Structures are given as structure tokens and as C-alpha cells.
């Protein structure tokens, strides 16, 4: 936030970063409740606070050394986009019920938040945390 008398330069970077890591991925294979709203999932919440479209590349790294991706998508300027890991299918759907890490790289700064909904039991759990930006 700036004081109305303070000048903001045109080349000031928007909030966020271009490299993000989330090491705590795990999409449960089982769910309880109606679909699609109660399906267990991991979600990336992506905010592009800048003036330009951000092109995003997501790679998933698994404990056994395998990688999934890259998954390519965009986030429009001044927009938020929620991306369920479960919904990534191109080049192929990532396996469920395995530990993984997310490496996210983009050409314009984003703010990234990680969210998990675990509905394996009727008493559902959702948690959220900020990703690590580099």
C-alpha cells in the first residue's frame, strides 16, 4: 500500500515470486461425500497481482524419484486461479495416494498458497499453508 503522495515507479514488481516449492503433497485416493465438492484434493491457489498474464509450469516430484509433468497453465492479470492437483491430466494424470512435492515456475510473479481437503472420513479436514518462494 502506498501513500497517495508517494510515487510508485512503473517498473515496480508486483507482489509474489517466480519460483515456488511445496514439499507436502499427498492426494488421498478415498473420499466421503458428494462429488465433486467433497472429493479429497490438493489445490494450488495462485494470485497474479500484476498487470501481465503469467505462464505457469508445474512439476511434481515423487519419493521414488519419478516426476510428473510439466503441466502448463496461465493465470490472467489481476486474477486468482485455483488448480486441483487431481484435475491435472495433460500430459497425464498424477497418481493418487503418493507423497509428492510441487515445483512451480512462472514468468510473472505469483503468490501461491497450498490447500488440502482430506475427506476420507465423514469428519472432513481442510488445511492451508503458504508455499515457499525463491
CATH class: Mainly Beta
Order of helices and strands: EEEEEEEE
Strand content: over 45%
Q: How many domain regions?
A: 1
Indicate the CATH architecture. Answer: Sandwich
| CATH level 4 superfamily | TM1070-like
Biggest pleated-sheet summary: 8 strands, antiparallel
What structural category arises from helix and sheet content? Answer: mainly beta
**Terminal Cα separation, in Å?**
23 Å
CATH topology: Hypothetical Protein Tm1070, Chain: A
Proportion in helices: under 10%
How would you describe the shape? globular
Contiguous runs where pLDDT drops below 50 for at least 5 residues: none
What's the pLDDT, averaged over the residues?
Answer: 84
Number of helices: 0
Q: Give the oligomeric state of the chains in this entry, treating copies of one chain as homo and distinct chains as hetero.
A: single chain
Protein topology:
Elements: E1 17-26, E2 41-48, E3 54-62, E4 67-75, E5 79-84, E6 99-118, E7 125-130, E8 132-133
Antiparallel strand pairs: 1-6, 1-8, 2-5, 2-6, 3-4, 3-6, 6-7
Molecular structure report:
This protein has 134 residues and is mainly β. It has no helices and eight strands. The chain has a single domain (17-133), classed as TM1070-like (Hypothetical Protein Tm1070, Chain: A), CATH 2.60.290. Strand 3 (54-62) and strand 4 (67-75) form a beta hairpin. It is globular, with a radius of gyration of 17 Å. The mean pLDDT is 84.
Amino acid at each position: 500500500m502506498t501513500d497517495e503522495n508517494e510515487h510508485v515507479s512503473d517498473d515496480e514488481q508486483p507482489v509474489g515470486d517466480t519460483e515456488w516449492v511445496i514439499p507436502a503433497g499427498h492426494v488421498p485416493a478415498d473420499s466421503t461425500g458428494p462429488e465433486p465438492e467433497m472429493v479429497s484434493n490438493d489445490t494450488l491457489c495462485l494470485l497474479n497481482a500484476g498487470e501481465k498474464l503469467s505462464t505457469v509450469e508445474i512439476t511434481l516430484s515423487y519419493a521414488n524419484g519419478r516426476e510428473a509433468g510439466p503441466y502448463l497453465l496461465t493465470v490472467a492479470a489481476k486474477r486468482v486461479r485455483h488448480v486441483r492437483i487431481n484435475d491435472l491430466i495433460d500430459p497425464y494424470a498424477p497418481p493418487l495416494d503418493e507423497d509428492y512435492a510441487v515445483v512451480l515456475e512462472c514468468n510473472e510473479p505469483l503468490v501461491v498458497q497450498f490447500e488440502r481437503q482430506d475427506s476420507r472420513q465423514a469428519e472432513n479436514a481442510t488445511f492451508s499453508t503458504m508455499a515457499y518462494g525463491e
